[in-house]
Amino acid sequence: MADRVVLAYSGGLDTSVAISWIGKETGKEVVAVAIDLGQGGEDMEVVRQRALDCGAVESVVVDARDEFADEYCLPTIQANALYMDRYPLVSAISRPLIVKHIVKAARDHGGTVVSHGCTGKGNDQVRFEVGFGALAPDLEVIAPVRDYAWTREKAISFAEENNIPINVTKRSPFSIDQNVWGRAVETGFLEDLWNAPTKDVYDYTQDPTLNWNSPDELIISFEAGKPVAIDGKSVTVLEAIQELNKRAGAQGVGRLDVVEDRLVGIKSREVYEAPGAMVLINAHQELEHVTLERELGRYKRQMEQRWSELVYDGLWFSPLKTALDAFVQKTQERVTGDIRLFLHGGAITVNGRRSSESLYDFNLATYDEGDTFDQSYAKGFVNIHGLSSKVAAKRDLGL
Questions:
Q1: Looking at CB atoms within 10 Å, which of 126, 183, 270, 311 has the fewest?
Q2: pLDDT tens-digit series, residues 175-212
Q3: Contact between 321 and 307 (Cβ < 8 Å)
Q4: 15 marked among binding-site residues
Q5: Is 260 a known ligand-binding residue?
Q6: Is 312 annotated as a binding residue?
């Protein structure tokens, strides 16, 4: 079998043109691999056939929807992962899964080179190539858009000159990446930070005022940090995300307008839609407030930001991320119970919590009859707790 290039194929202009371009430049056959992450849009069989029509010797579609939900979205929920306290890592968590399947395809189809369609300004080039380095350091990487300074105009000209069968006349004003966990929109008029998003930016969510008179209340059940039921009906993780995308999306929940710090050192403006993700993370956080011991909860909240940074920065397969995963799993052992949420006008409001693993003791918390908290302990505790500050204050004030 001849040496082959295995291309992460999206079905869009750049990766479609890349099939022919890579073949001409390298003399190698191209295998196109598209991953179904629940992104919707075009039928994946249409995408598969397009790759063949563009010159791929083989075209593979991998249905990774449940794998993505169980092995990438679920850890993100359990880590309450929000980069810069806002972004639920919509694109970042999909890249290591794509890398995994590209590497597998390279092994299965005789690939010695892997390729992606990322630019040199974004985070995804790092996520792909660091991932390839972690899983298959022997593979060479080609990045045509970045390494050969492709523009859309150059790609269109190449497609026309080489009779590549792809429609390039319809152009979205935005750059969009989406999967079942959410949707990321950038470029176009959004690059002016003062411009407000218009309604055509959104697809996963409706105008928050549209269903103003019909709010939605629901109960999410967790077992060991995993969502297992909605309103008492058993669901897989994928089904939970899909249902909450619909129900929360109908309430305008999950719209995020973020200026974020990219790994390459620039700031970028991104508009995200992640209705299911934001509901699940909010519910999970609230259940942890009920079930995690105070010091464990405090430490976990510090760790969550570091976990998010590692994933955003393309270090999913790093030793530190692996070690933090083990910590997160330990913390989830008693995160079991139900959270009731109210979805309305783009907002998520928790209004009920119950758990067999709850650390909330009514008799300790109540101020009414039945209070079992011994208040006589408090005076000595307060004096000792503040003693070091008091001693320092006397010194500093010359008392």
A1: 126
A2: 888 999 999 998 888 999 999 999 999 999 999 999 99
A3: yes
A4: yes
A5: yes
A6: no
Rounded CA-CA distance 152/313 in Å is 26
Separation in Å, CA 328 to CA 121, 278, 325: 32, 19, 5
Q: What is the pLDDT of residues 78-90, one digit of tens each?
A: 999 999 999 999 9
Known catalytic residues are 14, 95, 124, 175
Distance spanning both ends of the chain, measured CA to CA: 86
Q: Rounded to 5 degrees, what are φ and ψ at 203?
A: -140, -40
| Tokens 């993700």 belong to residue | 277
User: What is d(CA 90, CA 68) in angstroms, rounded to the nearest whole number?
Assistant: 11
Edge-to-edge strand order for the sheet containing 58-63? 58-63, 29-36, 4-8, 111-115, 140-142
CB 178 within 8 A of CB 184: yes
What's the predicted TM-score (pTM) here? 0.93
Which phi and psi (to 5°) does residue 246 adopt?
-70, -50
- The number of beta carbons lying within 10 Å of the beta carbon of residue 381 is 9
Q: Are residues 65 and 116 in the same domain?
A: yes
Please check whether residues 155 and 194 belong to one and the same domain: no
Q: Is 43 annotated as belonging to a binding site?
A: no
Residue 38 in domain: yes
Whether 9 and 143 share a structural domain: yes
Residue 55 forms part of a structural domain: yes
CATH of the domain at 286: 3.90.1260.10
391: domain range?
370-396
Structure tokens at 393: 């204050």
166 and 54 in contact (C-beta within 8 Å)? Answer: yes
Domain count along the chain:
3
Asked whether residue 187 falls in the same domain as residue 123, the answer is no
Whether residues 338 and 384 fall in one domain: no
Per DSSP bridges, beta strands 216-223 and 337-344 are antiparallel
